[in-house]
Amino acid sequence: MSMKPEGIFQFGVYRIDVLARTLRRDGEDIALNRRAFDVLLYLVQNPGRILTRDELLKNVWPDTFVDENSLAQSVSALRRALGEKPGDNSYIATLPGRGYQFISPVRIAAPDRPGTISDAGTADGNAPSRLLLQQHTIRTSVTIEEKEQLRPLRSGKSWAMIGTGSLLLVAAILLVIGYVARLRSAHRLSERDIVVLADFTNGTGDPVFDDTLKTALEISLAQSPFINPLSENKVRTTLQLMARPAETRIGPDVAREICQRAAGRAFIAGSIAQLGSQYVVTLDASNCQSGDTMAKEQVTADAKEKVLDALGRATSKLRAELGESLSTVQKFDLPLVQVTTPSLEALKALSQGEKFLYRKDPASALPYFQQALELDPNFAMAYVELGNTYYSLNEMGRARSYFAKAFSLRDHTSELERLQIAAEYYSYGTGELDKAVQAFQENIEYKQQGTVYLGLADAYSRLGQYEKGAEAARSMLAQNPESNFAYFDLASDDLALQNFDGARQVIAQAQARGIDGSFLHVEQYLLAFLQANLDEMAKEQRWFAEQRIYENTGASLAADTDAYAGHMKEAGRLTRLAADSSLRSDNKEDAAMYLANQALQLAAYGRPAEARESAAEALRLDPNHFGVAVQAALAFAMTGQNAQAESLAQGLEKSFPVNTQVQLLGIPMIEAQLQLGQRKPQAALDLLRAGLPVEFANTPFTSNNLSCLYPTYLRGQAYQAAGQAIAAAAEFQKILDHNGIVGNCWTGALAHLGLARAYASQSETSTGSDADAARARALAAYKEFLDLWKAADQDIPILKQARAEYEKLNSDRQ
Prior knowledge:
globular
């Protein structure tokens, strides 16, 4: 639909004048940039329709290349202009994966009468000139005496002189206006300009201001949807290119060079000095290229406790001077003590902890964040950072509790932080992944930040939407090519999509940048396993062994590989090593996960007593982790301990009522396993139907960031028990076809046996050549499994059963 050249549109309390290109509320103009206005106009001209991003881009800017990020920024600007809060969506609804929809009723109003001057501007051709004259308060007046003197001037020459003088006056006025506009433009930022923050110069001698004020400035500027400070990761990367250590103090000269290298527009240097009992805070924004001052603010605080308030006032003024509209400055400008903490000491502790977190040393960051909360128990962002830290340490249970606490305090944060807290709470707290995706997208619309793309990538992988996860990870790398987690996400997504060459290239790109991390080594190990590269697997195991903090990860990976090949004694030894190593570092969660995973292996391989013992120990270590509870419950259900399994399922329902993976995968798996134990395969299949939309999701029900596709394995068993051999074979084949998701999980090994049994059943119910073909496929599948387990422990019950079945089928053929 093409845009109408004129008209008045009204919705709610808002009014759009197409000719004047204005948005008004209750008679007051609302500032909108050109792109945001064009998007709004197209939306109101198509109310109720779902508009894809492609349609918006093609129709709003048909002759201009504009990417989806610019569209998202425009929609974000519209939400702010219309007063929408996160989750409100009174006017614009975001439909994940589909586009946008304008949901408010729209009516077309009568336009202003031609020839009149409206509130928005003039209706005649002189509107621009009149507005310029009004804006600059330029007024010409003529006295009565002057009029009398002018009356005789009737000749053509006289009128020509007057006309020439008027033209010269107008030209002079326009020149002045143009000069002033250019001058103001040179000292203003555009929406996408990058800003670099220098370290504060602390002239007070009080160490409490060291790092603290820069952190406070970052938080204050984060409220602005307009100003884009360069991320800490990007600053460190640029310092490396400058051959400077990551700990380099960023003074004005260094900040300017970083800004130039990062193609930024301005750098902001701050300082604090003490005059008697007063503190003087100065902010100076300078052009990166010329070094000229673009804006400068200086404020005074009467006491040390009022310094944060003073810094907040200075930042607000600076935002306006740099070109941000007064409406957004006023709307997104909570006092610093409200969005951070009234305690300078707590803010300093947060600043110190973030330094370690940025340097990929989460264990060292922990005590600082904990100290921040001791100083201020209501410090919302300290809870967020603790949640992030424990998540980095793979302690999900602790991470969830801190994200939940931050969510309860979100009203004491800025708009951006409130969006961040909501996204992380839904993703890692309640586990409502659809809400998490929407919250991350709203966060990106408000202000694009690399770390938000990481959260979005993770949420998509936990929904099994690996293509979208890879896209989000690439967006993260576009902003920060040094993000090790983005490389891990992208490599993991490529493995899940069976793109092994792509995963190898991603890992090589990370290594070429000198990026290292345990998650990347996990992906390297799994890639080597999938390609049967024993030398590379051994190399990765040496790396884990040399890093004491990751010894447990290496031992767990090796344990799963041994279990995959039927080496259960060695797998048990390595699992115990992994668990003990985790316990030594006070990581009960990982230890419990390793033991619960072992319990499920033992139950599947036919060792019920050992399985129950391992499951019970896992629950003693961490009874609250849903991944532990799901695996333990499955082990109990497989070994006939129905009461324990049912009790755990009820506990999961009570503790995780809205968690996507628990509700769609975890609980249905437990209940389906119980139904299978009672010989009710159809009931099991009905229960498992709920998880089909997220069947391939990366789940927390296993160790080492894998998904064993246990719902698929269980569905195959249910089809087999129901006598539907062809359907059963399809499920087991699905596991083998998605070994990039399964990795070295035990279901990958037993899928061969499940396939063999399904084909064997098919041969029994078929006749003639169909029976012969099914028997041949069954024998081949049996042989693949037995070759895989040729060096397995000989006393494993399921191995004995497989050999007997193979020999019987082979003898029947003869």
